[in-house]
Design a protein that fits this description.
two-stranded antiparallel sheet
C-alpha cells in the first residue's frame, strides 16, 4: 500500500464510501480527534507497566478505531460499513460503555474520596493520562457538533463521555500506583 497518493494535496479527503469533503469538515475533525486520542492512548500504554491496564488500553484503542470508522462513514454510506460488520465488529454500544463503567467503579473503590478538584500532574505518566482525557473531551465536543449537521449514533457520544471519566479515574489510580501525591487545587 502506497503511503502518499497526492489526492489530498488540494485540501480534500475521501470519507468511507468515496464522498469527497474538505479536510476541515466537522466529520473529518471529529474522527481526526478520535485518531489523536488513540495515539495518546498508545503512548500511555507504552509508559505503563501494569499489564491489566495495558490490556484495557489496547481494548479501548481497538474500539476507538471502530469509532473512527463509524465517524468516517457518512449516513448515506452506512450500508457499506454494515457489510464490513461480518468481518469485524463495527459497533459501539452498551457492552463497551459497561466495560468502561465497570473499570471506573473498580478503580474508584481503591481510591480515597475526592475532597478537592485535582490539578493534572505529579508524574509524567499521570500527566499523559490527563492529556489523553482532554483530547477525549475535545473529540466528544467535535462529535456533538457533528450531530447538529448529521445523525451520529448516540452510543458514540456516551462512549467518549465515559472514556473521559475512565481516563480521569485512571489518572488517579496511576497517581496511587506510582506513589505520588495528588495535587489538590486550592484557590
Amino acid at each position: 500500500m502506497k503511503i502518499y497518493t497526492k489526492k489530498g494535496d488540494g485540501g480534500l479527503t475521501s470519507l468511507f464510501g468515496g464522498q469527497k469533503v474538505s479536510k476541515d469538515n466537522i466529520r473529518v475533525e471529529a474522527y481526526g480527534n478520535v485518531d489523536e486520542l488513540n495515539s495518546y492512548l498508545g503512548l500511555l500504554r507504552d509508559l505503563i507497566e501494569d499489564s491489566a491496564i495495558k490490556n484495557q488500553l489496547l481494548k479501548i484503542q481497538n474500539e476507538l478505531f471502530v469509532v473512527g470508522s463509524i465517524l468516517a462513514t457518512p449516513p448515506a454510506k452506512e450500508k457499506l460499513l454494515s457489510k464490513k460488520k461480518t468481518q469485524v465488529s463495527f459497533e459501539i454500544g452498551k457492552d463497551q460503555i459497561s466495560f468502561l463503567e465497570n473499570m471506573i467503579d473498580s478503580f474508584d473503590k481503591e481510591l480515597a474520596p475526592m475532597t478537592h478538584f485535582i490539578l493534572p500532574g505529579g508524574h509524567a505518566i499521570v500527566s499523559h493520562c490527563h492529556i489523553a482525557r482532554n483530547v477525549c473531551r475535545r473529540a466528544e465536543r467535535r462529535v456533538v457538533h457533528l450531530t447538529h449537521e448529521e445523525p451520529v449514533e448516540e452510543a458514540i457520544i456516551m462512549y467518549l463521555n465515559r472514556l473521559s471519566d475512565y481516563l480521569f479515574v485512571l489518572a488517579r489510580k496511576l497517581t496511587k500506583m506510582l506513589q505520588v501525591d495528588e495535587i489538590k487545587w486550592k484557590p
